[in-house]
Design brief:
Blueprint lengths: L11 E5 L5 H10 L5 E5 L11 H17 L5 E3 L2 H14 L4 E2 L2 H9 L6 E6 L1 H6 L1 H9 L4 E6 L3 H6 L6 H16 L4 E5 L7 H8 L4 E4 H15 L12 E5 L4 H11 L7 E2 L3
Parallel strand pairs: 1-2, 1-3, 2-9, 3-4, 5-6, 5-7, 7-8, 9-10
Helix pairs in contact: 1-10, 2-3, 4-6, 4-10
Bound molecules: D-glutamic acid (DGL).
Length: 271
């Protein structure tokens, strides 16, 4: 009798347009330390946020296929722009569970029933797709939703300009109109933005609740793996393999900053 392979032992696949998705990997490793992870960052073609929906979908299919070819048991789309445009396509194309970053953030925002006026920031592609706006409005009709594309934030974060006054000026330009609307919650709709948490907490104080997509996505991933019987129970050795489609010292340095720890050699991925 052929035996069924135990897929729970296989690694989890995670992809992003670049290295921002490593904030999700960081959250996944905190919550699911027993899981091995294969990460793909499409650094050769980043950013996705300014590209057309068709291109984002094509890139996302290629990224997912790469991870499937490496034997992953599930795929986490650690990119808001790819989730916004390609999640349904990926879920209908591939047989493994494909988990996005938007739904978990929306669930977390609405969970305690307190949110009345929600602000969302993200790339131009994410905001233009209206994926967040639809997901929120479907679950809570009547909710006030104020979305703003904030395309300058990714370059600032990638440059490491987190404490510079210039970033605070840009944030004020973007956030003041949302604050004038009286938002009580701000959704960080981009996997780069968790790095802005400290500066946003300082700027906004306790008045505005911040919801980031990295930690909410990790919690949702655990739930999906549990439901699908894919959660790894054994505590054996785990691995983190990082593949990038373009290798450079700058990308590796950035990857270390996003992940918050050291890691082994980064490998070049050919899609
Ligand atoms: N990773 C993208 C996101 O979360 C931001 C970077 C990009 O534009 O590709 O939307």
């Amino acid at each position: 009798m052929p035996t069924t392979p135990d897929l729970s032992q296989s690694p989890l696949g995670v992809f992003d347009s670049g290295v921002g998705g490593l904030t999700v990997v960081r959250a996944l490793r905190e919550l699911l330390p027993q899981e091995s992870i294969i990460y793909l960052g499409d650094t050769a073609r980043v950013p996705y946020g300014s590209k057309s929906p068709d291109t984002i979908r094509r890139f996302s299919v290629e990224d997912t296929q790469f991870l499937i070819n490496h034997g992953v048991k599930a795929v986490v789309v650690a990119c808001n722009t790819a989730t916004a445009h390609a999640l349904p396509l990926l879920q209908s194309t591939f047989r493994v569970p494909v988990i996005g970053v938007i739904e978990p953030g929306v669930e977390a925002t609405l969970a305690d029933g307190q949110a009345e006026r929600v602000g969302i920031i993200g790339t131009a592609g994410t905001i233009r797709s209206s994926a967040y706006q639809y997901a929120l409005a479907m679950r809570r009709p009547g909710l006030q939703i104020h979305a703003a594309a904030t395309p300058l934030l990714v370059p600032f974060i990638e440059e490491g300009w987190i404490d510079q006054p210039a970033l605070k000026l840009v944030l004020s330009e973007y956030l003041d109109p949302l604050l004038e609307k009286g938002i009580d919650t701000l959704m960080l709709g981009c996997t780069h933005y968790p790095l802005l948490m400290p500066v946003l907490e300082k700027m906004l104080g306790k008045k505005v609740r911040l919801v980031d997509s990295a930690s909410t996505c990790a919690a949702h991933t655990r739930l999906v793996l549990e439901q699908e019987g894919l959660l790894r129970r054994s505590q054996g050795q785990t691995t983190l393999d990082i593949y990038l489609t373009d290798l450079s010292e700058q990308a590796e340095a950035m990857a270390r900053r996003f992940l918050g720890t050291q890691f082994g050699r980064v490998k070049k991925a050919a899609l």
